[in-house]
Amino acid sequence: ARPIRLSDYRPPDWLVDTVHLDVALHPNRTRIKARLALRPNPAARGPAPLVLDGDELTPLSVTIDGAALPEAAYAAGPDGLTIPQPPPGPFVLEVETEIDPSANTKLMGLYRSSGNYCTQCEAEGFRRITYFPDRPDVMAVYTTRIEADRDEAPVLLGNGNLVERGDVPGTGRHFAVWHDPFPKPCYLFALVGGRLDVCRTTFTTMSGRAVELAVYVEPGKADRAGYALAALERSMRWDEEAFGREYDLDVFNIVAVADFNMGAMENKGLNIFNDKYVLASPETATDADFAHIEAVIAHEYFHNWTGNRITCRDWFQLCLKEGLTVFRDQEFSSDMRSRPVKRIADVRVLRGHQFVEDAGPLAHPVRPETYREINNFYTATVYEKGAEVVRMLKTLLGPETFRAGMDLYFARHDGRAATIEEFVACFADAGDTDLSHFMLWYGQAGTPELAVTRRHDAQGGTLVLDIAQVVPPTPGQPVKSPLQIPLVLGLVGPDGRDVPLVRRGHGPVERGVLVLRKPAERFVFDGITVPVVPSLNRGFSAPVKIKADLGSDDLRFLAIHDSDPFNRWQAVQTLASEILIGNVAVIRAGGGVRHDGGLVHALASVLGDERLEPAFVAQVLSIPSEGDIARDIGRDVDPEAIFNARHALRRAIGNDLAPTLRVLYDRLRDDGPYSPDAASAGRRALRNVCLDLLAAPGHAGAVALAAAQYAEADNMTDRMAALGTLSLHDTAEREAALADFAERFRDDPLVIDKWFALQAMIPDPGTLARVERLIDHPAFSLGNPNRVRALLGSFAQANHTQFNRADGKGYDFVAGMVLTLDGRNPQVAARLMTAFRSWRALESGRRDKARATLERVAANPSLSRDLADIVERSLG
Ligand code: DPP
Ligand code: ZN
């Protein structure tokens, strides 16, 4: 397939004003009658043929303005419908198609999950239901009549408001008619039919309108839907308070399904969710699960304004809705929970996924300029870096101007399909400022690297900071321009307080924001008569890498004194990272690891600081992951050496801090009933980090402590944490606990996913054989994306030593599974294949093996477009 280019964008030739769908649900022969009111687009070039998209459709009949169309007048097949000479003016096209929902293993379009009918249309699934101009800039008003056997599908849901329902006499069938008054692109279409239980409430909006909220789940699971419903209410209130956005329909329905490619989907008024992001109870969900549910519920709800009311002109603008909506859900979670802890967690995700993507062959700009398969661009770059770009706008402009820009965006573009240029123009206008340089963040891939050096003249009271920036080359972009970077700075004085920031020739620095624009810049500060330590990029104000001339004394000082909690955490991470990278080199050279008391000292002072919230301390105690270390090393990566260096450091921390960790572990025991609130979750997080570090040296007593916690836990967080700790120790306790877990939760697939994932991540040479055995476990299924991600995704993405086995067997295993999966669900197969994205950074032995595996996959003649795209770009 030819690549699609942003520069080729042209407005659609035909617009669709209204869509009437009549869907007769049947397990194998679902019939869809579509009535489209079409008219020529005044903005297009003039008379044009009508070309509608299709994918695996069976056409039954075609009429124009009520008259059957002669066969010679059109061409219809599985992949599309073309009418070379349509009427010149507005007309009504009626098409009947037939599809087989039970055979739809791609989980795109209309399919069945656990016997229930559901849809997924983003990005290009609607064309698998009926012929349509399947592009987001065609917005129409939809009315949908859904008919089904009353026994098979007592619940029938569509977009918008319910306008009619009733029986079809004498047939055992019934119907419902839903009408959505808001014009929308077809990717937001949805319907559901099935046997579902429901959990409901009523929400009163800021203007006093009552909205019926409902969460639908598989029968018997309604008692696990309450947290999601409450999270929805909090999201609706927050969007009113933080952004002035009120909900606009009479109902808001959420349906949880077991088989789902994505996390969830923001269909207008009818969100469809992967049940992983809905179902939760203390016994089955961890604190992290509760937090994810709250965040995803919020994310999809917030799309109602940023995505649905204002959508994207084309798929190149995907970050317009995704980056912005991730930013909004991050802000929501920060307000619901701890802002610094949320920021740290988000930056961990950004670095762990986006920085890695940006450093490899799959790097692309936040707004790509070309794609072959849009499904492959639902990436960390579009989502997470896209959110960072919005955050930088806020940092540059300040909160008031940012809010004014958002208000302008909603006022100007409501009901329309917009572009990034139009979005950014709202902020330029609100702030009366020029943001043309800032636009480079959308067009240039790669993570900027800053080098910072300082010179302090205590006598003269001046501090000079020299800051240079480089953006490394990425595929298709060998040469980069410097970016406009908001860098938040603090200068921490000897007493731990910030020294006022007064820039020579500019005066006080507003909100501490330095704005970089050039390859190299000098910032001179006056009145700095005491020694200061610069605290750079506070709150992670810009998604960049920084090399600063800070010594370990400076880092320890910041770890203890910085008023910016993010940089307190960052200082410890940087200290640990430097030790780890040094030890990796020592190990590879055959030496013994260096032990650094300074890091342990910094950790001890954080542990002893009772003013700090436990969730924050837990983050500080979590040293860089194997992935973090590999990324920071960047080339000639040896995953074994990284594992060994990290393991040695964890042992050292566990040994040196054992008494403190044990006291904390005992003190943080929570004897009350479980509550998923952030403060309680933070205490559990810290307690479980203590347990894990206590056990790291492998002492039998600490392993027994983990086994006891596993057995006694009254909630999934503590049970799973104990099991995670046990999983790292090759002991009888581990196998006993794993067996117990499997038996205890045998009827709960979402919980068994945790069991699959944990075993896939065990850093032992036996894990590959274990995973191969688990493929045959009765609870595993290649047809369910959650199962695939839990077992195969965890092995490939999160088990660095075993996926990257020196003998290459990890690569071959994953590639074999990807090929098997590709025939069934290309989207999930392609995603799994991205595990190879860092292959070039590996040491030469593994690199050669990974390349050979990629080449073998590439040589396969029948790859899906999704998989071929990933494999070819990975090798490119
Ligand atoms: N459902 C996906 C999301 O919300 C794609 N829109 O991010
Ligand atoms: Zn989204």
Automatic annotation (TrEMBL):
<keyword id="KW-0645">Protease</keyword>
<dbReference type="InterPro" id="IPR027268">
    <property type="entry name" value="Peptidase_M4/M1_CTD_sf"/>
</dbReference>
<dbReference type="InterPro" id="IPR042097">
    <property type="entry name" value="Aminopeptidase_N-like_N_sf"/>
</dbReference>
<dbReference type="Pfam" id="PF11940">
    <property type="entry name" value="DUF3458"/>
</dbReference>
<dbReference type="InterPro" id="IPR045357">
    <property type="entry name" value="Aminopeptidase_N-like_N"/>
</dbReference>
<dbReference type="InterPro" id="IPR037144">
    <property type="entry name" value="Peptidase_M1_pepN_C_sf"/>
</dbReference>
<dbReference type="GO" id="GO:0008237">
    <property type="term" value="F:metallopeptidase activity"/>
</dbReference>
<keyword id="KW-0482">Metalloprotease</keyword>
<dbReference type="Pfam" id="PF17900">
    <property type="entry name" value="Peptidase_M1_N"/>
</dbReference>
<feature type="domain" description="Aminopeptidase N-like N-terminal">
    <location>
        <begin position="96"/>
        <end position="188"/>
    </location>
</feature>
<dbReference type="GO" id="GO:0016285">
    <property type="term" value="F:alanyl aminopeptidase activity"/>
</dbReference>
<feature type="domain" description="Peptidase M1 membrane alanine aminopeptidase">
    <location>
        <begin position="227"/>
        <end position="439"/>
    </location>
</feature>
<feature type="domain" description="Peptidase M1 alanyl aminopeptidase C-terminal">
    <location>
        <begin position="553"/>
        <end position="875"/>
    </location>
</feature>
<dbReference type="InterPro" id="IPR012779">
    <property type="entry name" value="Peptidase_M1_pepN"/>
</dbReference>
<dbReference type="InterPro" id="IPR001930">
    <property type="entry name" value="Peptidase_M1"/>
</dbReference>
<dbReference type="InterPro" id="IPR014782">
    <property type="entry name" value="Peptidase_M1_dom"/>
</dbReference>
<keyword id="KW-0479">Metal-binding</keyword>
<dbReference type="GO" id="GO:0008270">
    <property type="term" value="F:zinc ion binding"/>
</dbReference>
<comment type="similarity">
    <text>Belongs to the peptidase M1 family.</text>
</comment>
<feature type="domain" description="Peptidase M1 alanyl aminopeptidase Ig-like fold">
    <location>
        <begin position="446"/>
        <end position="548"/>
    </location>
</feature>
<protein>
    <recommendedName>
        <fullName>Aminopeptidase N</fullName>
        <ecNumber>3.4.11.2</ecNumber>
    </recommendedName>
</protein>
<dbReference type="InterPro" id="IPR024601">
    <property type="entry name" value="Peptidase_M1_pepN_C"/>
</dbReference>
<dbReference type="Pfam" id="PF17432">
    <property type="entry name" value="DUF3458_C"/>
</dbReference>
<keyword id="KW-0862">Zinc</keyword>
<dbReference type="InterPro" id="IPR038438">
    <property type="entry name" value="PepN_Ig-like_sf"/>
</dbReference>
<dbReference type="GO" id="GO:0006508">
    <property type="term" value="P:proteolysis"/>
</dbReference>
<dbReference type="InterPro" id="IPR035414">
    <property type="entry name" value="Peptidase_M1_pepN_Ig-like"/>
</dbReference>
<keyword id="KW-0031">Aminopeptidase</keyword>
<keyword id="KW-0378">Hydrolase</keyword>
<dbReference type="Pfam" id="PF01433">
    <property type="entry name" value="Peptidase_M1"/>
</dbReference>
